[in-house]
From TrEMBL:
Gene transcribed to yield this protein: Apt1
Family: Belongs to the purine/pyrimidine phosphoribosyltransferase family.
Domain of life: Eukaryota
Organism: Irena cyanogastra
Pathway it works in: Purine metabolism; AMP biosynthesis via salvage pathway; AMP from adenine: step 1/1
Name listed for the protein in its UniProt record: adenine phosphoribosyltransferase
Subunit structure: Homodimer.
A GO BP annotation: purine ribonucleoside salvage
Listed EC numbers: 2.4.2.7
Compartments (UniProt record): Cytoplasm
Keyword annotations: Cytoplasm, Glycosyltransferase, Purine salvage, Transferase
Amino acid sequence: MDLCHVPATREKGWYLALMAPNVKGPNYAWLDPSRLYCHPQGLQDCVADLLQPFQGDAIDMVAGIDAMGFILGAAAAATLRKGFLAIRKAGHLCVQTAAQPYRDYSGRQKVMELRTDAISPGLRVLLVDQWVETGGTMRAAIELVERLGGVVAGVAAICMENSEGGRWIQERYKCSHCVPARLQPHFDQH
């Protein structure tokens, strides 16, 4: 699909065809959504689909997870007319932070940080990332928000895989993703 083409009928997830498979090996995610972000209508429809389940919900701020979650998170924040908070990998913020260790989708141990002055008790935060594969990264973000007194208003990602960690998140929080039910098994079995 070229970057100018818009299908005549646009059902949920039509833009998933814009994603490209991994050609660089096992240290990378199996699919790359960055081409989807280059497509104006694809990006708009993706963000609309992510936000649809939260229509009418109280959301005070949107937080995106380093780094690709910044794209969708900032787009969601702009759409909702809310502020945007960057949740960063350790060592990138030059202010007072709270830190949370986690294991990412590749099994590597990492640390995530959040500025301590951005979340006040009761602040309702929509967490956004590009992908929830094992759930480790999103769970670390949830723990940071909640430790600082924030409330996780929801979790949104292009795909939430049916992994143990993905199920843990979906059982406890309102979630949204873009993969139609009929395609979910393909995404879970990559």
